[in-house]
Structure prediction request, 452 residues.
Amino acid sequence: MVWRILIGVIVVIAVAFGTFYAWAWRGEIPPLQAHDASSFDPSIVARGAQLAAVASCDVCHTKAGGKPYAGGYPVKTPFGTIYGPNVTPDRETGIGTWSAVAFRRAMREGVTRKGQHLYPAFPYDHFTYATDSDINAIYAFIMTREPVRQANRPPDIVFPLNIRLFAAGWKLLFLHRGPYRNEADKDDSWARGAYLTVSLGHCGACHTPRNKFGVEEQNRAFDGGEGEGWRAPPLNENSRAPVPWTADAMFNYLRHGYDTVHGHTAGPMANVAHNLSKASEKDVRAIATYVTSLSGARAGAANPESIKTAVTAASKLTAPAYGGTPAHQTTGSAAGKDSLGAKIFTGACVTCHHSGGGLPVSRPIDLGLSTVINEDDPTNLLHIILTGIHPLPGRAGRIMPGFEGALTDAQVVALADYLRTRFSHRPHWNTVAGALAKIRHQRQTAATEAPQ
Prediction:
């Protein structure tokens, strides 16, 4: 009887595995025999360039100092590091042999031309919602880039997840395929923005929390997440922005990387804004319209009078004189830390962040308006204190120096504590030291893994 049960279990497992393998198997799509860049309609290539900018394709497919789209960029995941592949039209190391059909399959299903399953670090769970015409336009753009011969770096994923069949299992459980369906009662701009945000823009990839399987928690869509060691803030009604976003403010932030009330982009969002500066203005405005609508009741309150009231209230936290103990927190251990933080702020920060100060360039926003100081997590503020804010290489932009080499960890913690209690009415952070230690560890790991 025991042997019969054992044999039965083995048969069931074998049948289940065979069924799954049959489902997961993808055949090779025949290679493109020849590819002529001049055969693509220039107008479609131009449209593809704008859509590739919405998708920020160059970010994950271009390593630091490398040639565009030649791959090598490390994408950190909880399961290891995956390196963006070469997607230039080189026939040996890129996708020069890929047809439009093969490209669409990769975008929608996460499967290479040869039938290999791709890890979901490539956001095909979003790209699956893109239309044929939009994917074809991106294909035309990619296939007209400069071919670069650069071998792909294999992923560094823990066993047994490094077996590609596990990626197929992930899809079986979690991949919901398109097409995207808009809500019928919305106007064209909102509908276009919703489509781009969910599909090519893949905003939820960072701004939605994930479960232990790396799957976005759709019941908490746009409730905040993580990207490249930074916290991606909530875009919904849980946004901690002291002043509600308007569609115009969001457009300025996304298109130009700066808004006079909400400040400027930093971290991964700097690359996103740079790319959106090359996208269609109409598409960026549509994205801004949709994203602003996510905050629900807060967005409804974002009229000129409420904006003025909110700005005035937040700006009152930015007084002409600095130093001393924060007015709304005078007791407890945080107050002791803040006395040190106040001294550091007075010596290192007041020149630029004083509300009455004069600078040769535009003054930063009042710190009482800062989202990073009002967030539930201090990670982004710590990143900015350590590394500052700088324009992307070779580009103009606003600058804030970093203090990583000038301040000790204890001083960084004290400064962050002071900024939180002095310029925000939000509760005191209890996680600053831990968040700083995590950032330090991430940087040390990245430096160790970086190719020499």
About this structure: The two ends are 61 Å apart (CA to CA).
